[in-house]
């Protein structure tokens, strides 16, 4: 086995095979399981009904994020403020009961460490390089940014992992997305991944695990890598990977659940071998020139509907595929846009800076850099910043970023998924537009009738300042 | 999971193509903590139209649903399968299914039957007046008339469905192999074996 050159994906896969069956499926060991309140109640209920236990509670971490309001969670006297929506409250309560009763470590709604599962995992040192990570949420792909094989699963699979710490899987095909050259000034990892999805399409990675390769990724911070891998699912891939390197090791050193002492040395030694061997073959390969990437926004209702900010709303007839023409027509009617309209003329009434794609400290710094000493435009009615975790929030406050946001007219909120999907009260009103740093611009994603434009934190901040989709490079020359 | 053998009864002649999971069960219903009760929200937007086939008293409690191409596309929510089960549907017949949906359906004991469009068209006709029968053992769909259509099913899935085996139960039988893996991992990759206990 060792003699054949292998891809990074194959190396992680091989290290986790418990056994392989005749039909080619394998039982794969899962090292880390993140659990949140939305997709777990039915799994715990099934365990209870069957009289089953959690095989490895120590490899499981539970954090609520989707339903939590982003308004204060404790009152002045330090008492918890109950969630008004009874169903959200019931989902939270179920997790609060299930985690301790199955022996799982639980980070509660008011803990400083609470946050979006995909922010918390790496931050706590729970999501380690070379590990297999699952969560009942499709954006689990994010953890690929630390060099872990991470993917979303359904509730029956959540139950399967809780009971057996394994999953029955077929090996995926491999896809290389190679980016040559360097990103221009003002162009971020979010612009890059939006551009990549625009190029490969939402089905481009179907059946594949993507490995992002090239100098651009090597130079990126771990946080930016998490942003890139997060949206692999929008490109149809179940998982995305970036090889761990010195930047990754430095990121993990000293985190609460990171290995220590002798374990640390052994881990790093193994991690150093986690890269695609020379001569390893990918099933599919796409090459992108970094010089082609501009600050990018979406104009439609699919993450592949991307354009450089300098561009215009496309004419649906300009697409070769009749299905795409039809989809674009529908998108434009939902989005209230006309073909040929300049993107930089499109006004926004809402700004959302947050979500597991862009709510880490680096994202907040990028947004604050644009907003420092500025005010949001008068046509922007609602602008919120939702840090990805309580620790990110503390960190930002220590740097004074909260003041910059508040002075500019944005709201500074408690951590959670928030307006990314509007399961909590944070929603974009019907017919209004939102400059959003999240990952999905689907119909109704941010609230019924809401119109979402995806972009980077710096671009969202620029939109807040001008009240329109704006090339951030014009503000920070 | 209850064993599946044959499913016989009225079939809802729904027929729509590209039915996504948002149509089967809208996002607002994801806030539940139970698998039950989702029938109420199933096909909510379809049922808002007067005279829709789902609410037609003729098909109340029908165990079979007939649909068009690409049934169950969209999000991975397993609630779509639970909603169908809660309606009493245990077999869906369509020309094709999304992968994730058919996996979720299988895990919940719902049979997904793929048949070519002409045969679907014929079943849509029959369903308006007569029952339909789906037999897993012989892999056939039959009507009270001369129709007899055969379908493919993955042997592993067929075995699980017909014996009512659940995947968790099957994997638990492999506990020894999993224990062996864990033992090796504790030796070779001790840092991975430690998890949340490290900061106890
Ligand atoms: S922030 Fe959005 S995409 Fe991320 S886990 Fe929450 S809901 Fe899902």
Question: TL;DR of this structure?
Answer:
With 477 residues, chain A is an alpha/beta fold. Chain A contains 15 helices and 19 strands. In chain A, the strands form five sheets. Chain A has a five-stranded parallel β-sheet, with helices on both faces. A five-stranded parallel β-sheet of chain A has the order 17-16-15-18-19.
Give the CATH H-level superfamily of the largest domain in chain A.
Answer: Aconitase, domain 3
Uncertain stretches of 5 or more adjacent residues of chain A: none
CATH class designation of the largest domain in chain A: Alpha Beta
Structural class of chain B: alpha/beta
Indicate the overall shape of chain A. globular
* SS summary, helix count of chain B: 9
Average pLDDT, all residues of chain B: 93
Helix content of chain B: 25-40%
Ligand inventory reads: iron/sulfur cluster
CATH C-level name of chain B: Alpha Beta
Tell me the span between the first and last alpha carbons of chain A.
53 Å
Radius of gyration of chain A: 22 Å
- Strands of chain A, count: 19
Function (chain B): Catalyzes the isomerization between 2-isopropylmalate and 3-isopropylmalate, via the formation of 2-isopropylmaleate.
GO biological process, one term (chain B): L-leucine biosynthetic process
InterPro entries (chain B): 3-IsopropMal_deHydase_ssu, Aconitase/3IPM_dehydase_swvl, AconitaseA/IPMdHydase_ssu_swvl, IPMI_Swivel, LeuD
Protein name (chain B): 3-isopropylmalate dehydratase small subunit
